[in-house]
Amino acid sequence: MRLILNVLWFIFGSGFLLAIGYGVAALICFALVITIPFGVAALRLAAYSLWPFGRTVVSKPEAGVATGLANIVWVVVAGWWLALTHIVAGVAQCVTIIGIPFGIANFKLVPVAFWPLGRDIVDLDHAPAYASTR
């Protein structure tokens, strides 16, 4: 079922367009050397937005104060409008019954688009094991 939802998301749920957008943002961040951590986060978002079903976001407990400060910069520069875009798209997709899974996928992207640093994206099957080793 995950494969079918991911393929439909890729084609109809704007997964491909989101991945391209996050990929371009990552390239810009890599060009501006000081923003490389944001580029890595944008690449993670690109991969997650390309294939979201069957994966989840988990926090990294070892993330420190620098990660929190960088997340604040991210929220001010890009995070708030990215999260708002995912919320609006999710609500619009939930209007139809067929679009509800795609709306839920957009809602899953909101927290990581708003606050991406200090988080990992893992398979749902590995999430409990990931949390217990941390």
Automatic annotation (TrEMBL):
Domain Inner membrane component: start-end pairs: 4-55, 69-119
Transmembrane segments: 7-24, 63-81, 87-107
Keywords: Membrane, Transmembrane, Transmembrane helix
UniProt keyword annotation of Amino-acid biosynthesis present: no
Pfam families (UniProt xref): YccF
Organism: Asanoa ishikariensis
Name under which the protein is recorded: Uncharacterized membrane protein YccF, DUF307 family
A cellular-component GO term for this protein: plasma membrane
Tree of life domain: Bacteria
Keyword Calcium carried by entry: no
